[in-house]
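I'll show one example:
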Amino acid sequence: MKTAQVVMETGNQAAALAVKSARVDVVPGYPITPQTSIMEAIAAMVESGELHARFIPVEGEHSAMAAAVAASAAGARVFTATSANGLLYMHEVLHMAAGGRLPVVMVNVNRGIFAPWTLWADHQDSFAQRDTGWIQYHCSSNQEVFNTILQAYRVAEQINIPVMVNYDGFAISHCLMPLTLPPQEDIDRFLPPHEPEWRLAPAHPSSFSNVTNAPEYAPFRQMLSEDILAAIPLVKEAAREYQQITGMWDGDTIDTYRLEDAEVVAFAINSMAAELRLTVDILRDQGIKAGLLRPRLVVPFPAEDIIAALPPNAQVMVLDRNYNFGHPGGILAAELKSVLFGRRNDITVKNRVMGIGGIDLSRRFMAAEIRAMMDDNA
């Protein structure tokens, strides 16, 4: 019986190793900082024979997603990755992947979008794609990146909806952390070969993504909307089964820290949420009963789990690394307020936007910001 292997790897290398472990068939790729090293690693694996897949270098991100859609429609297990403006360039074809009910898995390495240009992280890129019909995970460590990509395939192929796995550029993508690699036979138990119920095949002619009239179009859109919400139990099931097989747990739709008796709750995603664990400890040492609630799943938004997890009468301090243009504050705060409205009137929500374009968010800085928010009566 083989045992798990522990290595030191970057977040991007963790993503590439997860793709290898998932035994992906087709990888269309185009480079963009800070995602490029994922595609470099996968291309090297294909060239060396470590990964038995077709790597397709394309001329841009729109073509990368178009190739991913075509390969998935033909029955392949497909992966691609991008960042920032590359994700925006894919926007049109993201809708086709979701509306076509294709289980593509894609990594987006979060990076701010122009203008002006930046290479550093915030979350405007992935949040700008919330309405494309993709499920969205957000990760806070290299290990979680590896585990979540495998879980994403499990969910995508069960419900035929594409999944985007997001994590912060440089803070995770290029930082070394210990990474536990489960034995391949355990991963194969968790993620068996992809066997789609339908595929494009010359032996069985069929059509895909045809023009429709309103009576045909509307039910397809309604079905997609309902099925995205129906993905939440599958996310939970995938997380539990992955834990049973590998012993590793990241949380399912949410992750919490010192939340049970918290009076002040920090609410954030990605690497800033990992740093907030240390912020919570600082605030506890200062006599403030603080805790953390981190959504791992942003689309669909895990409303019921959040509502159930928040302690009574808590002040929730939402730290957004994005702007909700046209509204004050950020997108996470707006999403949270919408699910609390009329159901948890005991909860107070306050919000600040910070860390835009990669500004460093240290534990002490965020502790000071949370204390300032507590004193703010607005």
About this structure: The mean pLDDT is 97. The first strand starts at residue 5 and ends at 9. Residues 116 and 240 are 42 Å apart (CA to CA).
